[in-house]
Amino acid sequence: AQSVTQLGSHVSVSEGALVLLRCNYSSSVPPYLFWYVQYPNQGLQLLLKYTSAATLVKGINGFEAEFKKSETSFHLTKPSAHMSDAAEYFCAVKTPALNNDMRFGAGTRLTVKP
Amino acid sequence: EAGVTQFPSHSVIEKGQTVTLRCDPISGHDNLYWYRRVMGKEIKFLLHFVKESKQDESGMPNNRFLAERTGGTYSTLKVQPAELEDSGVYFCASSQGLGVETQYFGPGTRLLVL
User: Fold this and answer.
1) A100 and B43: CB-CB below 8 Å?
2) What is the mean pLDDT of residues A9-17?
């Protein structure tokens, strides 16, 4: 079975600082990996996804994530945080070889301090 | 193009009552998913429709939950009778295909059972 673990339910950074949100996955077959963001009172919005092409994936709003098979990780980064990045971020894994549902992590709430 | 919509946005009911949640997927999307997030925990898969057929309902918690997708368009999720532990946010998502296809999420329905 596949699963993801997000390290840190809350992360706080200063505006302009590096954002690093951690995600580790477990899967018995090659996975697809996703990062979603949820702004207050909105639905989940896809930031980026890994589909076994390039290991470094660039997404919207300046975010990127790197797939590292040896570390079973898919951490999300952004070089410089903006106040508008404050939201909850979810890592998810999908393994079409097994099924088509997505397994989500518990989420990481990002706070950006001025 | 309209996104995934869900109704109602909030629902407060008493234990033992019935609640019906509705999801309208993006037009043309054959795949429709229901997920649930209980307070502070991960988003969990409930079930997956392909058109009007239930492809996977392995995540449905018990027989108090009934999902339908009449004519392969909108879907409803009925909880009858509701229990306290059913409280949470219910998300609907849709996708055009399977595999790496992006799932587009609605804003969710916040259900509180008192």
Assistant:
1) no
2) 96
